[in-house]
Specification:
The complex is a heterodimer of chains A (about 230) and B (about 80). With about 230 residues, chain A is α/β, with parallel strands linked by helices. Chain A has helices at about 10-20, 80-105, 130-150, 170-175, 180-190, 195-210, and strands spanning about 1-5, 25-30, 45, 60-65, 110-120, 155-165, 220. Chain A has a single domain (about 1-220), classed as Rossmann fold (3-Layer(aba) Sandwich), CATH 3.40.50.720. Chain A has six helices and seven strands. In chain B, about 25% of the residues are buried. Chain B is an all-alpha fold and about 80 residues long. Classes of the chains: A alpha/beta (about 230), B mainly alpha (about 80).
């Protein structure tokens, strides 16, 4: 059984992956508030505002990581404070970087492992008030592409998955700031319609599997977002 | 906490297209010309930045006037 570490395990997308594949993988779950995950074994408390890499000490050698941790931002640049910057960048970027460093230093990643980081369509199509979210996800994508080069000798695959809005917590928080009409216009930019958690989960599952022999250093968009004039 | 005049001044400061002194405590903020979701976002961000209070979508939906908003901020700070 492959051993997979899930960071940000309380996110809705993570819950979906865990529900579907807990029988197939040996899962290690890390979250800021891991008590939310109930009585599962192999829980890790992790807080990127005060990251302590010893939280990974008891992990075995891993065959994969999925990094789901992240928060959105809806603060115009003019009103942004350091605390906003810290909150968003710690969760979306620093946590991914620092976790990877800690796991590599302690030889916790097996050869042929697969690392998947959740980015967002917003890194490519920004929105009003999203400067921190957008730039942190762009930073994450730069990290992914670089890490893929560094880990290629060990055949470790490193990719980002960048979905459009998936119905759930984050997109609901966005709908607070926009009208029903705007949400409908946005939906119409997706020729295949809105996406489900499934669509993201299945792609991640493929990236972690032995079927993925050669995909690395890629940003894989999910949702066929169409910004063309004919949309 | 500051009074409502200072609160109004801060909002006016963000909505530069708004003529000065059009906002009053009893102004129904959705009646502001060209009111949009962007204004809602700016008000939420302003209140978060200046008063350390995070309004929910629900707060914003139930508030009618500038005074209502100010009252929510005051309650949430205490």
């Amino acid at each position: 059984m492959k051993k997979i570490l899930i960071i940000g395990a309380t996110s809705e997308l993570a819950e979906d992956f865990i529900a579907k594949y807990k029988g197939e993988f040996e899962l290690y779950l890390a979250a800021r508030n891991s008590s939310k995950l109930g009585k599962q074994t192999k829980l890790i408390n992790i807080d990127f505002d005060q990251f302590d890499e010893s939280c990974f000490d008891d992990l075995p050698e891993l065959d994969g990581i999925i990094y789901y941790a992240g928060i959105t931002s809806h603060t115009p640049v003019k009103l942004t404070k350091k605390r906003h910057y810290d909150a968003v960048f710690n969760a979306n970027f620093y946590g991914a970087f620092a976790s990877t460093t800690a796991l590599l230093k302690n030889n916790k990643l097996a050869n042929n492992a697969s690392l998947v980081f959740l980015s967002s369509i917003a890194a490519h199509y920004p929105y009003f008030g999203g400067a921190l979210y957008v730039s942190s996800k762009m930073a994450l994508e730069g990290f992914v592409k670089t890490l893929a080069i560094e880990l290629a000798p060990k055949k470790i695959k490193v990719n980002a998955v960048a979905p459009t809005f998936v119905k759930g917590e984050m997109s609901d928080s966005i709908s607070n700031f926009t009208s029903q009409k705007n949400m409908e216009t946005f939906s119409k930019k997706h020729p295949f319609g809105n996406i489900n958690r499934d669509d993201v989960t299945e792609l991640i599952h493929f990236l972690l599997s032995d079927k993925n022999n050669s995909i690395t250093g890629q940003i894989l968009q999910v949702g066929n977002f169409n910004t063309g004039l004919n949309s | 906490m500051e009074d409502i005049a200072a609160f109004i001044k801060k909002i006016e400061n963000e909505f530069e297209e708004l003529p000065k002194e059009t906002l009053k405590p009893e102004t129904s903020f959705r009646q502001i010309d060209d009111w949009s979701s962007m204004h809602a976002l700016i008000i939420i961000a302003l209140i978060d930045s200046e008063y350390d209070v995070l309004l929910s979508g629900e707060d914003l939906r139930t508030a009618e006037t500038i005074q209502d908003l100010f009252n929510i901020v005051k309650t949430k700070r205490s």
